[in-house]
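ugh ok so i messed up the first submission bc i forgot one of the chains. this is the corrected input, ALL of the components this time, i swear. 175 residues overall. if the numbers dont match what u have on ur side tell me asap before i send this to the collaborators (the ones from the other lab, u know who)
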Amino acid sequence: MNWTDERVERLTKLWAEGLSASQIAAQLGGVSRNAVIGKVHRLNLPGRVKAGGNAAPARTPKRTSTAPARPATFAPRAPARPAARPVGSEMVKESSEVQPYVEPTYRPGRDVVVPISRKLILTELTERTCKWPIGDPIKDDFHFCGCEAQEASPYCSYHAKLAYQPVSDRRKTAR
DNA sequence: CCCTGATTCGC
DNA sequence: GCGAATCAGG
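and heres the new structure output, hopefully the right one now
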């Protein structure tokens, strides 16, 4: 993958919008978050400064001598967290605002506990987040479960059950 | 351990 | 110029 004007443009835009390097990498595709960060610096785009959970002070390890450390020339910026998507709720009554992550559980006996969706958007999914889609892909409230996925599974324990229930067992499982 | 961005340096 | 490896921190 090479940095075409179009890709650089998208990178610049997404970075300005506050998306993390990994999210941008996921969106662009074909590049790692390191590649994104490296490009951001080469483009002299403003770095992220003290925004919730990131930022890193200057560093001076590795191979002394050659390569004079470049002084940081970053100007502080406004905090940058992707705006939370105003989405509709899903099978769980919603209270006020930020819902705490709830470990999806299941007691073989009787009750099935529906996990509260973390409401992640496509670019926020990782290898260990539940990728169960929720909502209408056409509408902008579409998102993914995002709870902790089971080992070697694209879904959390709850959605894995829904996804892989045997045909014979399928029947009265309200969605 | 998960994640974040920053930096270095071989290519 | 590129980005993996590495560092530093939440």
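quick check: The helical segments of chain A are 5-16, 21-28, 33-42, 157-164. that seems consistent at least. Residues 51-60, 62-104 of chain A have pLDDT under 50 and may be disordered.
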